[in-house]
Specification:
The complex is a heterodimer of chains A (385) and B (333).
Chain A lengths: L2 H24 L7 E8 L6 H21 L1 E3 L2 E11 L4 H13 L4 E4 L3 H14 L3 E3 L15 E3 L4 H14 L5 E6 L3 H16 L3 E7 L8 H8 L5 E5 L2 H13 L5 E4 L6 H7 L7 E5 L9 H12 L7 H18 L4 H10 L2 E2 L4 E2 L12 E7 L2 E8 L2
Parallel strand pairs in A: 1-3, 1-4, 4-5, 5-6, 7-8, 7-9, 9-10, 10-11
Antiparallel strand pairs in A: 2-3, 11-14, 12-13, 14-15
Chain B lengths: L1 H31 L6 H22 L5 H28 L8 H22 L4 E2 L8 E4 L2 E4 H23 L1 H11 L1 H6 L4 H27 L1 E2 L3 H16 L4 H25 L6 H6 L1 H6 L14 H15 L14
Antiparallel strand pairs in B: 1-4, 2-3
Helix pairs in contact in B: 1-5, 1-8, 1-9, 1-10, 2-3, 2-4, 2-8, 2-9, 3-8, 5-6, 5-8, 6-8, 9-10, 9-13, 10-13
Classes of the chains: A alpha/beta (385), B mainly alpha (333).
Chain lengths: 385, 333
């Protein structure tokens, strides 16, 4: 084996994968006389459980609208979902965004990750297609000056600030270690947390990094153990936080553990087991059972998919319904006609009241804090909103 | 010191996992000159099969002691993976044995994607929690902690490695494997059933993959249809580092890669801490402001851990293109 050969092989692999992806995508359906709504998120790979959760939320909204029968412009329309797999990869995010633009979708719900949502938003903006992300919380997304970019969830500036102040004020942390997963979301949240924690008087003893495909954190955790911080903050997702908590326990680290909304879900409880006990996490908005329509939504979701809600399905469901409501109100599924309506709409969704500010951020986003107690997320308090 | 020994131990556990998976890559490469990219996926199938079996047993026979459940689960997973490995070779690689080398490589990637997708359909997209059949009791060794699973990983890898060396060097099957590796045509003329030997190689490699899968999923407590991909890539790197085609090389490469990753991630930030340079602190006001107390401002953080591992790989390949132990062709198996 020599290097020259290896590089040729690597290139062939990429070409082969690309070709395989094209073939797979070419098979997607074609239904005439329907309003096409796009969805994009990771449907394969390490975060596919969350991407599919979002897709399920959107599908539920569209199926309900179709069953109820919607009249737009004097004609009965059916909504068809075109769901694309961005693999949580920014490059792939732009590729599927172009595909949705080419398919002339009337609106896009997605993407799931901030890292894919941001590059995709330029393409949707150029095509004038409204984009509503149910879960991308990185501040940049709605601050690029695109009038098509919206989100129905509080952003990281709001969340990171609350987390930083909570860590210092309520949890009494004087020294903190910060880990992030290098994604736009994890990094953004960790940066906002760091700012807020420093402003509140805490000292950041170390900043460590991991990745969205990692399961072994012993090396960075051991390094953190040597610095003995009061609190470890993690900017990232459940899939890493679960094993990380186990490894923290095995290494005998006693620091408090705090994370954001990527971690505050049922999956984390399962993945961390006993090791999750005592961990803190925040989530934008209210807890599901305190959301205005949370309980009903959870039942509908369970009945249709026989799966538990991961995190963002209610937001995806609301995002889809906001688009449909704007279309009905504008009496048109043409993006150019319903976009102005969307900007000023007030919609009562399952996650709460949805109205957008001038950037496209949801107004009055509140942040709730939770702690794992006896294997369950115990609701502590809601800040802001 | 305590931190250092902990990092060494972390690296050993991680490295033993890489080594165990790397053995599968290296065995197949040694005989066929083929990189079996589907090997990582066989590891994943092993882990998920064992998980399903142990979950079923926990429900069906609540009183059964944990070691028995574990044993049954591992055995079923091994058998499933052996069948899978046999079928992969028979269906995807054997018809292409005389084709240009690029063709089986593409097929291998195809098989890898196929297995991932099938596993996604069977086990779903969600992450599975692995029941703690081996309780994660931490032990203290030289100031560092290691769990029972960690000890098992190091021990099992060492035993399997030894067993494989004995098999290859002191049995009839091993001799036939070495002969096939050297020259398929000639060993065929000498009465070696080449097809059977190649099948045996795949079956043995896949059984090891099943064991690796069970150990990995027990160690991290999770299993997922995607878990084989990254692990496979790392193990392949380990095999190349040690000298692909060489059994001892796979072991050495795996352990080395584990140690490099662990020490790299653990110390790179500390070593490149800009605060330790007084002249830099005087030159930059911003740096001086951030260097308060025990705070560090590293030039390279732990996000460079993979860069570190691949830098070592590239350096080794530049000076020794065959890998660390790659030249000893006679030991290929």
């Amino acid at each position: 084996m020599n290097l020259g050969k290896l590089s040729v092989d690597a290139r062939t692999i990429v070409l082969g994968l690309g070709a395989a992806a094209m073939l797979g995508l070419a098979g997607c359906g074609k239904k005439e006389e329907a309003v096409r709504i796009g969805h994009a998120g990771p449907l394969t790979g390490p975060q596919s459980h969350l991407g599919k959760d979002n897709e399920n939320g959107v599908r539920l909204a569209l199926d309900e609208a179709n069953a109820a029968g919607v009249m737009i412009g004097g004609r009965k329309v059916t909504f068809a979902l075109q769901s694309e797999d961005d693999q949580a990869d920014p490059k792939q995010g732009a590729i599927v965004a172009q595909k949705l633009v080419d398919a002339k979708v009337a609106g896009v719900i997605g993407h799931m990750n901030s890292g894919t949502t941001i590059p995709a938003s330029k393409l949707y903006s150029d095509a004038g297609i409204p984009q509503l992300s149910p879960s991308a919380t990185a501040v940049t997304y709605t601050h690029q000056g695109f009038n098509t970019a919206f989100r129905v969830i509080a952003n990281d500036a709001q969340q990171g600030k609350v987390l930083g102040e909570y860590a210092v004020g309520k949890l009494g942390a004087k020294t903190v270690a910060i880990i992030d997963d290098r994604s736009a979301y994890g990094q953004g949240l960790a940066d906002e947390f760091e700012k807020a924690a420093k402003a509140a008087g805490a000292q950041v003893v170390t900043r460590e990094f991991t990745g969205i495909d990692k399961t072994d954190f012993n090396a960075i955790l051991t390094s953190i153990k040597g610095k003995n911080p009061d609190l470890i903050f993690y900017g990232g997702m459940d899939v890493q936080a679960g094993p990380m908590l186990k490894q923290i326990k095995n290494l005998g680290i006693t620091s408090k553990y705090l994370a954001g909304d990527g971690v505050q879900n049922a999956e984390l409880l399962k993945l961390a087991g006993d090791a999750g006990e005592g961990a803190y996490a925040s989530s934008p908005g209210l807890p599901l059972d305190q959301m205005p329509g949370g309980k009903g939504f959870a039942e509908k979701y369970k009945a249709k998919y026989n799966l538990e809600i991961q995190i963002y399905a209610p937001y995806a469901y609301d995002a889809a319904n906001v688009v449909l409501a704007a279309m009905k109100k504008a009496d048109s599924a043409d993006p150019a006609k319903y976009l102005p309506v969307l900007k000023t709409i007030t919609y009562q969704g399952v996650t709460g009241n949805i109205t957008f500010d001038e950037n496209g951020d949801v107004k009055g986003g509140s942040i709730s804090l939770y702690q794992v107690k006896d294997g369950k997320w115990k609701y502590l308090e809601t800040v802001g909103g | 010191m305590e931190i250092f020994s902990q990092q060494i131990l972390n690296g050993l556990v991680l490295g033993s996992v890489y080594a165990l998976v790397a053995l599968g890559y290296t065995m197949v490469y040694g005989i066929l000159g083929l990189i079996n990219f589907a090997h990582g996926e066989v590891v994943m199938v092993g882990a998920l099969t064992a998980l399903s079996v142990s979950n079923a047993l926990l429900v069906a026979t609540p009183g059964l002691p944990a070691p028995v459940i574990l044993l049954v689960a591992v055995l079923v997973a091994m058998i499933a993976c052996m069948l899978l490995g046999f079928s992969i070779e028979r269906i995807a690689y054997r018809p292409l044995r005389r084709a240009p080398r690029l063709a089986p490589l593409i097929t291998a990637i195809g098989v890898s994607i196929l297995l991932q997708t099938i596993a996604m359909l069977i086990w779903g997209r969600q992450y599975h929690t692995v029941p703690a059949l081996i309780p994660p009791t931490p032990h203290t060794v030289a100031g560092a902690t290691i769990t029972d699973v960690g000890i098992a990983i190091i021990a099992v890898s060492a035993v399997i490695m030894l067993g494989l060396l004995l098999l290859v060097h002191f049995t009839k099957l091993g001799r036939a494997m070495r002969a096939t590796a050297e020259n398929q045509l000639v060993s065929g003329l000498m009465g070696v059933d080449v097809n059977r030997i190649i099948s045996a190689t795949f079956v043995i490699g896949s059984a090891l993959a099943a064991v690796a899968g069970v150990l990995v999923s027990a160690n991290y407590g999770i299993a997922h249809y995607y878990m084989g991909f990254t692990l496979g890539l790392k193990a392949f790197t380990a095999a190349v580092l040690g000298g692909i085609g060489n059994l001892g090389g796979a072991m050495l490469g795996g352990v080395l890669l584990g140690l490099i990753e662990s020490l790299g991630a653990g110390y790179i930030g500390h070593l490149t801490d800009l605060c330790q340079f007084e002249s830099l602190r005087q030159a930059s006001l911003e740096l001086a402001r951030n260097c308060t107390g025990s705070a560090e401002v590293p030039l390279f953080g732990s996000n460079y851990q993979d860069v570190f591992a691949f830098l070592v790989l590239i350096t080794v390949l530049v000076f020794r293109p065959t890998g660390l132990l790659g030249e000893r062709v006679s030991e290929r198996a």
